[in-house]
Amino acid sequence: MISYIIWDVNPEIFTIPQFLGFGPFPVRWYGLLFAAGFLIGQQIMIHIFKKEKKPLEDIDALTLYMVISTVVGARVGHFLFYEPEVLFKNPLEVILPPYAGLASHGAVVGIVLGLFLYSRARKATGQTFLWVADRMVILVALAGSFIRMGNLMNSEIVGRPTDVAWGFIFMKNTEFLQIPRHPAQLYESISCFVLFFILLALWNKFKENTPRGLLVGIFFVWVFTLRFLYEFLKENQEAFEANYALNMGQILSIPVVILGLYFIIQSRNHTIQKVG
C-alpha cells in the first residue's frame, strides 16, 4: 500500500500584532528563507574575499547590489514573461508588495546587470565581472535552494499528479485537487544545494586561479538543464502555457544553457591575470 506525504504546513510562522496603527505583519517561512539565503551568502563571500585578499569594505555594496537586482529582476521578469499586460498597464506593481510573482530567469538578468554595475568601478582590485560572477553563483545556488524550500512551505509551484511513494498532497493549495503530486520545489531545492557544494569545492580547489567563467558556466548548465527537465513534472504557471509544446520556463532555459556551455568552453583557454 502506497503511503503519501500529507503537506499541511502553515506558510506563516507567526504574526506581529498591530502597533501604532501599523500592521499586523505576518512573518512567513518564504521571507525568512529568502533573507537567510542573502545573510548566509554574505558570510561566505566575506570568507572568499579574505582568502583572495579583496577589500572587505566592498561586501556591503555587493550585497546591496545583489538584493536590489535580484528582487527587481525577478519581479520584472515575472510580469514580462508571464503577465506582460500588468507590467504595461500598472508598472508600479513591480515594486509594490506582496511580491507574489518572482521569475528565476528575470532574477538571472537582474543579477548579471547588478554585477556589471558593481564590477565596473572595481577592476583595479581584480574584481572583474567574471571574477565576481564566478564567486557569486556559489551564493546564488545556496539562495536558490532556500527560495525553492520557501515555495514548498507556501505549497506553491506544485508538481503534476503522481503515484510515487514520495508524492505530496498539498492541503493548503486550493488551486489544484488535493491528490498526490511531485514535490517539484523539493527537487529543485536539493539540486541547488548539491550545486552549491560542487561550486564551493571547485572554488576551494582553485581559489584565485579559478578559470574565469567556469563556475558561471557550470551554474547555468546545471540549473537550467534541470529546470527544463523539471518543468515536465510541474503544473504550468499560467494558463496560456497549455497551448505551447514547451512552457515559458523551458523556452527561456534553452538560451541560458547554451550561454553556460559557451562560458565553460571559453574558461578552458582563459588566462588568469593576477593583481599584484
From TrEMBL:
GO terms for molecular function: phosphatidylglycerol-prolipoprotein diacylglyceryl transferase activity. Its EC number is 2.5.1.145. Its main location: membrane. It holds the Pfam family LGT. Keywords: Cell membrane, Lipoprotein, Membrane, Transferase, Transmembrane, Transmembrane helix. The keyword Transferase applies. It is a multi-pass membrane protein. GO terms for biological process: lipoprotein biosynthetic process. It is found in: Cell membrane. One of its GO terms (cellular component) is plasma membrane. Pathway: Protein modification; lipoprotein biosynthesis (diacylglyceryl transfer). A 1,2-diacyl-sn-glycero-3-phospho-(1'-sn-glycerol) binds at R148. The chain crosses the membrane at residues 29-49, 61-82, 94-117, 129-147, 184-202, 214-233, 245-265. It comes from the Bacteria. Belongs to the Lgt family. Catalyzes the transfer of the diacylglyceryl group from phosphatidylglycerol to the sulfhydryl group of the N-terminal cysteine of a prolipoprotein, the first step in the formation of mature lipoproteins. This is Phosphatidylglycerol--prolipoprotein diacylglyceryl transferase. It comes from Dyadobacter koreensis. The lineage of its organism: Bacteria, Pseudomonadati, Bacteroidota, Cytophagia, Cytophagales.
